[in-house]
């Protein structure tokens, strides 16, 4: 199971490996180098890998300072697909992901590591 061991601005350690770019984490898979159409705006197409797996819960880490914008229409579209959405600053998102993953929830985290 993927557990986030450390997070700081621009760096995250998951299951013993350190990453320096945004990523998507599932309990059983990591998608590194998560790239979005616009770095500080989230669009539904940016979450294609999440939609393919359709977790029950998606935690979006919107950055160290919470700068990445997550529009309401993206949240509503995900919720219409049956995915609960939680948007938090990335440190809080890390904690929430770990908590839910340890409870064996069907969870994913899409994490912006900077800003």
Would you give an account of this structure?
- The protein has 115 residues and is an alpha/beta fold.
- The chain has one domain (4-112): Hypothetical Protein Mth938, Chain: A.
- Helix content is 24%, strand content 31%.
- The chain contains 3 helices and 8 strands; from the N terminus they run E-E-E-E-E-H-E-H-E-H-E.
- The strands form 2 sheets. Strands 5-4-8-6-7 form a 5-stranded mixed beta sheet, with helices on both faces.
- Strand 2 (11-14) and strand 3 (17-19) form a beta hairpin.
- The N and C termini lie far apart (27 Å).
List keywords for this structure.
alpha/beta, Hypothetical Protein Mth938, Chain: A, three-stranded antiparallel sheet, 3 helices
Largest sheet: 5 strands, mixed
Question: Could you give the distance between the termini?
Answer: 27 Å
The neighbouring-strand order within the major sheet is 5-4-8-6-7
Strands, count: 8
CATH architecture: 3-Layer(aba) Sandwich
> How would you spell out the order of helices and strands?
EEEEEHEHEHE
The CATH superfamily is known as MTH938-like
Computed structural class:
alpha/beta
Shape: globular
Broad CATH class: Alpha Beta
Low-confidence stretches: none
What is the fold-level CATH name, i.e. the topology?
Hypothetical Protein Mth938, Chain: A
Radius of gyration: 13 Å
Work out the strand percent.
25-35%
Relative helix content: 10-25%
Quaternary organisation of the protein chains: single chain
